[in-house]
Fold:
Amino acid sequence: MFKKVPAALAAGLLTLVLTACGGGDAGSGGGSDRITLGFSQVGAESGWRTANTKSVQEAAKEAGIDLKFSDAQQKQENQIKAIRSFIQQKVDAIAFSPVVESGWDTVLKEVKDAGIPVILTDRAVDSADTSLYRTFIGSDFVIEGQKSGEWLVKEYEGESGPVNIVELQGTTGSAPANDRKKGFGEAIAADPKFKIIASQTGDFTRAKGKEVMEAFLKAHKDIDVLFAHNDDMGLGAIEAIEGAGLKPGTDIKIITIDAVRDGMQALADGKINFIAECSPLLGPQLMDLVKKAVKGEQIPQRVLTEETTFTPEQAKTALPDRKY
Ligand code: GYE
Structure:
């Protein structure tokens, strides 16, 4: 006959097993073994951002990770405050989507000193010291800009210039604004007939996109092309173009980036001509990386998202299954 294990000893063994499993053993029954993740989001400026927030929240739930979510309303100071509060709350990991690229070294050093792993999601920082974060998961924004420019070069192949372009930039100083501008500029440099006649920020929002496009239309009578760094600014600009009695997609060709549902609908309707995709569905991969980082496992320094491009015909096919 086996002797019964005393209850106290059994409880002790159980604790030992749970501890040995490590903090990252999601779904092992709640309590202190669950991972707590502090996540500082940029804001709610676009359809892309809304889809990204949903993806992160759903994936955390799915993975059994306790999420402390903070919305920075497009302000770096709010993100810095949120990160400091995550340190105080002794979270197991911090993930954030840095609104701009520069100015993070001090706070990231504080996180490092606290021994908390950091994962950058969606946007990059320009810190020279890459040991301040474990990994960066997100798109290659330069490539998105290049694909946009390459489409334009093909579209005007064999035609004489000039081709007058106006550009609606994303949030000033943000990685996607910097990189999309760069990639697009490189691609159109192939032919001097392409001229960017005006370029201004629309802060990635529909309202600002409309406002800035209205100003562009007043100042320039000869706009051929609009390159908007995201769908939402493009959609705002479409309202401005229609308001000025012009036909978006025909009188002014429009290229945007993201491929959220509203953008794809406008593309299918012929109001946008080309979209380079940028996926907001980073949640599941992020949670995997968080678990690994908390366990101290090896993770790659850079995780790239897979993306494609869409023409109006392709948008019509993809729209019924579009999740965001
Ligand atoms: O393209 C834009 C959003 O950082 C990739 O931010 C993201 C960008 C996205 O506001 O719509």
About this structure: The radius of gyration is 23 Å.
